[in-house]
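Model it.
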Amino acid sequence: MLRRTMVAIIALTLVMLAGTAMAQQCVVGVYADQNGTLGYVNPSYNGPISDPFYVYSILFTEDFANAVAWNVNIQGLGTDILETGRLEYGNFLDVTPEGYRLGLGDCVIGFNRTPIKLIRHELRAFFGTGPRLVTTGPNVLEHQTSPIYSTCQSVLIPCQTWSLTVNLSPIPTASGSWGSVKALYNN
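Modeled.
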């Protein structure tokens, strides 16, 4: 009987530890939609500059969170891409050139892949060639190597990152020539 009880206690302990490790995983990333499902954006153009498009910083965690520390790096910002607006979804405690520290205020629930929106960047791009990357990284004031979030018990946990690609020129749907188009209509 004692042996079965010890086995049951060890098994329960392992399940609890696995659940704790699972709850502490997180991703801080940039996405082209507020649900955190699109990793690329193709801006539409009316002339040499694009219409406004949005890039969202989102936290995914299987935990309760009350603060996030991270930064966003927009490749080509100021030359190929312009930031024309920003919407913050929480209360910023500190904004510095090294990164953003976001205080969400009350504990926010992130279970079941629920996206926790942090910031929406409104951008416009100049027509060009080649993609530009928007990446997330560490807020060096809080953590040297990765973004982090704070649980509602003030435990700091490092996060993985997710990047986004901005295509500065339209992507052709099919390669072809004017002659092949005319051949379709026997002209």
